[in-house]
């Protein structure tokens, strides 16, 4: 039985409300995490050297803020022009894709560092990541190009929505899942080797190598891959927005944790060196009280 026009409008209104809740939750989640890490983050931004990793960190960290702002504008702005909505959707997708790429690059560099920057592995991973990025971006923009953009005609309900689906959208997550599974496997192999060598506590080694961050990203991608299969409703595709936000948070938190640990090691080593020097020259280290 073909749904009536009223049923279609009610479904569209419910969908716009659903998108609004998801994006408000995403904005709240990002803001809360940013406030919690504000001191550590600004310490890193002020004291760390400018490198490619730092640039990727900034893009991965702040691109979700830009995409969330665009998403909230799409949801709450009274716009009846589908062409303008499609342009905003393209900008929104680009910002999310930039954040996703930078987050995955941080994971790739972390995995390469675990394997002592093995040249063969590094070339293979960088080549694979470039191929996956290019193909996934093409598939997603193809899905957007053939998607249906709808605006609200119900008074009091604003925003526009779009439907994503089909093989193009599905395949982009399949490629991402395979790539993340490779990173997870390489990290897990290194963790097992470290555990056998050090004979330490397995949980401590797992935490040290951030294996749970890898597992979280893998789980999110698997969820986004299965949802289009289990649910035909395109509204559930908005979980992709949450994945972009969460992946950015866990990737940047992992990098912050590693950087602060590295700084702590350098400071501890310097203090040990100064203490040993004072002992050799027969003097006591000067203590400054603030």
TrEMBL record:
What are the transmembrane regions?
55-76, 88-109, 121-147, 167-191, 211-231
> What organism is the protein native to?
Suillus discolor
Give one Pfam family.
DUF6533
InterPro entries annotated for this entry?
A: DUF6533
Q: Answer yes or no on keyword Transmembrane helix.
A: yes
Q: Does the keyword Aminoacyl-tRNA synthetase apply?
A: no
Q: Could you list this entry's UniProt keywords, alphabetically sorted.
A: Membrane, Transmembrane, Transmembrane helix
DUF6533 domain segment(s) = 21-66
Q: What is this protein called?
A: DUF6533 domain-containing protein
């Amino acid at each position: 039985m073909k749904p009536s026009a009223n049923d279609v409008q009610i479904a569209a209104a419910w969908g716009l409300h659903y998108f609004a809740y998801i994006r408000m939750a995403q904005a709240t989640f990002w803001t809360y995490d940013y406030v919690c890490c504000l001191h550590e983050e600004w310490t890193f931004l002020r004291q760390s050297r400018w490198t490619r990793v730092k640039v990727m960190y900034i893009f991965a960290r702040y691109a979700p803020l830009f995409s969330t702002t665009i998403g909230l504008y799409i949801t709450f702005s009274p716009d009846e022009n589908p062409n303008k909505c499609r342009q905003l959707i393209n900008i929104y997708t680009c910002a999310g894709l930039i954040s996703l790429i930078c987050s995955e690059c941080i994971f790739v560099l972390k995995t390469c560092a675990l394997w002592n920057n093995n040249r063969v592995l590094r070339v293979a991973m960088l080549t694979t990541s470039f191929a996956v990025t290019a193909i996934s971006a093409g598939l997603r923009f193809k899905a957007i190009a053939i998607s249906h953009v709808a605006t609200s005609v119900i008074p009091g309900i604003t925003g526009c929505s779009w439907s994503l689906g089909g093989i193009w959208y599905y395949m982009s997550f399949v490629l991402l899942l395979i790539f993340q599974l490779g990173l997870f496997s390489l990290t897990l192999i290194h963790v097992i080797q470290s555990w056998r060598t050090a004979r330490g506590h397995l949980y401590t080694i797992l935490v040290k190598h951030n294996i749970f961050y890898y597992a979280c990203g893998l789980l999110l991608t698997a969820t986004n891959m299965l949802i289009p299969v289990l649910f035909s409703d395109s509204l559930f595709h908005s979980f992709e927005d949450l994945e972009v936000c969460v992946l950015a948070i866990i990737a940047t938190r992992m990098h912050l944790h590693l950087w602060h640990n590295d700084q702590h090691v350098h400071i501890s080593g310097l203090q040990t060196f100064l203490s040993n020097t004072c002992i050799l020259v027969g003097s006591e280290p000067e203590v400054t009280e603030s």
